[in-house]
Records
---
Amino acid sequence: MDPIIKKVTVKSVITKSNLPVCDYAVNPYVGCTHACRYCYASFMKRFTNHIEPWGEFLDVKYWPEISHPERYAGKEIFIGSVTDPYLPQEEIYRRTRALLEQLQGSGAKINIATKSDLILRDIDLLKTFPGLRIAWSINTLDESFKCDMDNAVSIERRLAAMDQFHKSGICTVCFISPIFPEITDVKAIIERVKKQCNFIWLENLNLRGSYKAVIFDYIRQKHPDLLSLYKNIYSDGDHSYWRRLDMEIRSHAAEIGLRYVTNDDSIRNSLDDLPVIVNFFYHDQIKKNAKPHATL
Ligand code: SF4
């Protein structure tokens, strides 16, 4: 089903952000046609008067030219905190491209998280930004699980785009998020991406929103053997699974010579040969100092 698309005029597009990872957030679109079943951003519906299901609407934002873009010099700007800036519709409307053109030369530090390879279109423009960092969300190598979870491009296409950016010397991140207990093979993903990214971020699946029931239905149908584990974690609040996984990945990282940290405050960019693994599991409960990152 085609999404309902509407053009909207907004007074400004850049907003101060409370997210600990950035100073400002920008969302060139309202809604997200990737329609991930675990999307935390679906809460946005409440604020935008949309009655359509999440993933079935998209507002395309038009804003006045950004005045004095140089005031963002050195500031961290996160493009796409509650949408993907490289949705398929970006090919037509080019609002993310327009945003980058308006910020070009400002000295802003751009952070983008995407599940798309359309970003390759803008690689030359993006390269002109200092401290650029691009993350691809990849929580499986199994294309059929991916198709069960989102409408975005294949994992292989995301990996190919990441590789191309990495080869161009741009700081790249493989964001293993959300990690589905016993479904996401974290070690296999690390093995697959370790030569083509600078960071590997780990984030556990959270089920706080209305999508909890959706994910439980999925587990019941496709992985009934995992139902009791999911109930333990998400209904009884047992976090021991994440502690075990934390230890397992930590020792795997040591075996294969990768650095493993739980707080990336001091590591904004890394262009080392090998990626740094950053753990964002239950930052408030397991790792008191770790920083959260908005899940894409
Ligand atoms: S999780 Fe991210 S990519 Fe998926 S629907 Fe939500 S905003 Fe879009």
---
Amino acid sequence: MKRWKRHLSGRLSKMLLGATTLACLTIGQVGVATGADVGQTPSDQKPTVLITGANRGIGLALAEHFHQQGFAVIGTARKPEEAIELKDIGVEVYRLDITDPESVASLKSELVGRPLDILLNNAGIGGHSTSQLKDLDIERLKNTFDVNSLGALRVVQALMPNMKMSSRRIVASMSSRMGSIQQNTGGAIGYRASKSALNSINKSLSNEFSEQGFVFVVLHPGWVRTAMTNDSATYSTEESARHLYRVISELSKKDNGQFYDLHGNSIAW
Ligand SMILES: NC(=O)c1ccc[n+]([C@@H]2O[C@H](COP(=O)([O-])OP(=O)(O)OC[C@H]3O[C@@H](n4cnc5c(N)ncnc54)[C@H](OP(=O)(O)O)[C@@H]3O)[C@@H](O)[C@H]2O)c1
């Protein structure tokens, strides 16, 4: 945490020095990445975080919080033209459907040469769910896995070159406590299994890229009031994002391959 704070305050000081100049320039003058639907000009001086599914829910709150903390935020949305709240924060917005290889390839080409310090695989769905096995439409679970498990894998594979351009190399994927096999109390078969698969994928990547200094973690954001849940959930999106930011900003090499909740407590696999 202290290391990050020092890093950020150093970067922010440089930004403040250049703020007057930047304020005089238009977005076009300072150069905008091709294909981006831009709310505000990026600054090379800031550490950069990319957040998938940033147009609403926890992703939107994370985008806002990282932006407030001095990060250059790249938020992705399936429909950037409708991501009004995300653009209003003043971050870069790119189109991305994590189930569509062409969409992932397009983002990859748009971000060539752009270092990414943190990748936050946040996009996810509840997916098809029933309380009884006899009602389960197993074919529909394929989509749950495509989004919740394979989606993050596609994004990581595509953006590896960008991550390698940074010395931080943090990849945090939004899992769920429901992906814990040990804590499985039944129900939501597809969602639970898709998050367990995401956890397993994360563990594999943490092993493969350990020697290159990567830190791969899966996180549980708490029970959060979003379209995926209901009003009785424990946390607001802002509260969850604030806690998650703290956990993410404190990550170091020793955390590689771990599963944490929003307070930084380990969750059993
Ligand atoms: N809320 C909770 O209590 C809770 C608890 C544990 C874990 N989580 C996890 O936290 C993450 C965020 O959840 P949330 O509650 O904020 O959900 P949410 O409000 O429903 O938002 C989900 C986000 O994912 C995006 N998304 C869905 N499918 C996508 C795809 N194929 N490609 C790209 N983006 C896609 C959505 O975009 P569109 O607007 O285009 O649909 C939206 O931006 C998820 O991974 C979820 O599993 C949430």
---
Amino acid sequence: MNVSEAGTAIAVATNSVPVKRILGRNPGPMTGPGTNSYLIGTQSLSLLDPGPADEVQLHSFLEAIGTATLKYILITHTHGDHSPGALALQEATGATLVGRKAPEVAGHDRTFVPDKIWQDEEIIDVGEYTIQLIDTPGHASNHICFLLREEQLLFTGDHVLQGTTSVILPPDGDMAAYLDALARLKNMPLTALAPGHGEIMSEPQAEIEKLIAHRLKREQKVLTGLNSLGACGLDELVLRVYDDVAAHLIPWAKKTLLAHLIKLEREQKISQANELWQLK
Ligand SMILES: [Zn+2]
């Protein structure tokens, strides 16, 4: 059985609240197998991250919703592979839009307009289940993870991915904020992580600790790279710091490298002049 068939609603293992994953029809180098959308509940449903605007996928959602009612559309962040499908889905169902509006930078979907200003830690009581917003800026400044409280299942969007690591794109992406948000999740009693791309992760704390360690190891590589290369530019430094990354991903690695450099500069460990970075 091909469990990753796009458009098909596949049950996620839960105890009391049904959750289904519906894979998007957008596989690619940055989206892996495609964007995961999740449908939560039995009669009063919430759909998380409808993905790109796609009529075929919209039809799959409506089919999976069936005679139940879609109450909420939850948006982790407004990158193009997560939120643009919300508009047509909202028009078709009248569901309430939950999330934060797009920041004024390139790469964000401005068609998404939430129905109100949602607060960090706000709890949405759907009746059958409750969902809590957890602010997790870093990958994007408006990123939210959603906690299905009855299951302690966290929908992580692009904050924690399976099979790959999130790209942090400055100026909207922020490495220090990203690490702080990971540290916040580390203290939560979670049972599983449901990512925006990839498979469900059943050992949340181990995954989160691994991610924090991975970023700090990369940061150390930035410092040792600068120590041996002296003052250097992004193009030179990226090859040293991301020597384990495939060539076609280097342009993305460069952006995350810049996020590391900005963090280190703020911490006054390094400095920059004329596009050259060096240790202080
Ligand atoms: Zn994203």
---
Amino acid sequence: MYELVQVAEHTYYVESPAKVGVVEVAPGEVVLIDSGGDRSAAKKVRAHFDAHGWCLRAIYLTHSHADHTGGCRYLQSVTGCAVYAPGAEQAFTAWTWLEPTYLYGGYPPAELRHKFLVAQSFEVQPLTPEALPEGWETIDLPGHFFHMVGYRTPDDVVFIADCLSSEATLAKYRVSFLYDVTAYLQTLERVAQMQARIFVPAHAAVTGDIAPLARINIEATHQVADDLAALCEQPIGFDDLLARVFTRYDLRMTYEQHALVGSTVRSYLSYLAAEGRIKPVIQDNRWLWVQAAR
Ligand SMILES: [Zn+2]
């Protein structure tokens, strides 16, 4: 963990739970793509700059999740670097309580206000075309979260953020976090068609051919949707449905998982309703979901 891996002439990543891109944009000057999950991860990333005599100019965030932004405060405090985030991700990064508030759907209890869901705050600016290094492209990847982006570097390396889970992660956790199922599936279809010298997913192995993993993630998404639709054979409330999902997929319930998987299941229910497969009903002062044909 935390070794620096070179993937092209000027492009590297630091192996970590959420990979950090390191790109040399001028002799002796680097920028990062994401920052590591916390201060201790960021310190290990910084040790590579010191070893190479690099100075850190800026951090480009893919999205606002704390496992990608948690190192920014430390790195900004020791280097004064700028940090940029796209669209609504900039708001979620600047106002760190938005994340647990979004997941909980109200003022979050202490169980949801810890460092895995709330990064320390830091100064973050909106990502604009002018803020990008010369020759870089952003790639819109909505679905996993509001305005997630990937980055293509001038040496044709694509950092693809969180739109793909590894096969092992999918087998173990089944429901990977997402916000908008329709947008997520559209993003994956586009990703499956993409070409690059190498792709760096944050949570899966680097690869020159992204299509097979994109297809596996598309299939896994449809499978979760099908399973949820099947669980709505009789009218069922959200917490009962979530309990059945955890039992069926053999997941371990915690407050955090209730919030993360729960939010994702809510998004799937909206998707299934929009597809005409399930519908909401009010019964005995409860909001229930049931298959639309019933
Ligand atoms: Zn994420």
